[in-house]
Amino acid sequence: ISLPESEAGAGRGADRRVPYPLRVFRRRKVTTIVLCGISTEFGVESTARDAYERGYELVMVSDAMTGLSVESHADAVERISPRIGRVPSTEQLIAAFAELQDFENKRPKRATLH
């Protein structure tokens, strides 16, 4: 699921208590959110904090975000983000997905009951 962010905190819908994307995720039983985007220290971090407070597992892709400055991005990625989720690089995330896919492909198939 890919949802654009329209404002800090993942955008607010008609129900101001729960941001619109998080309502979509809840309906679809999503448990982990992968975040990337611009404004690491504002939009991404705000969305991450909101999702963390609602019990989501978070993955914030360090080199798929950008901040207002190199220093503010580094501060968010090195000090804030690791406190609320995992912070892999794009390469590490792709490798983790490949490993998961490889695991799924090697998993014994369940017999279909008729």
Structure, explained:
The protein is α+β, with helices and mostly antiparallel strands and 114 residues long. The chain has 4 helices and 2 strands. Strands 1-2 form a two-stranded parallel ribbon.
Which features would summarize this protein structure in a list?
globular, alpha+beta, 2 strands, two-stranded parallel sheet, 114 residues
Brief characterization of the structure:
With 114 residues, the protein is α+β, with helices and mostly antiparallel strands. The protein has helices at residues 20-27, 40-53, 70-84, 90-106; strands at residues 32-38, 57-66.
Seen as an oligomer or otherwise, the chain set is single chain
Tally the helices: what do you get?
4
Strand order of the largest sheet: 1-2
Listing every helix as H and every strand as E from the N terminus to the C terminus, the arrangement reads HEHEHH
User: What's the helical proportion of residues?
Assistant: 40-55%
Content-based structural category: alpha+beta
The total beta strand count reads: 2
Radius of gyration: 16 Å
Spans where pLDDT lies below 50 across 5 or more residues: 11-15
Distance between the termini: 33 Å
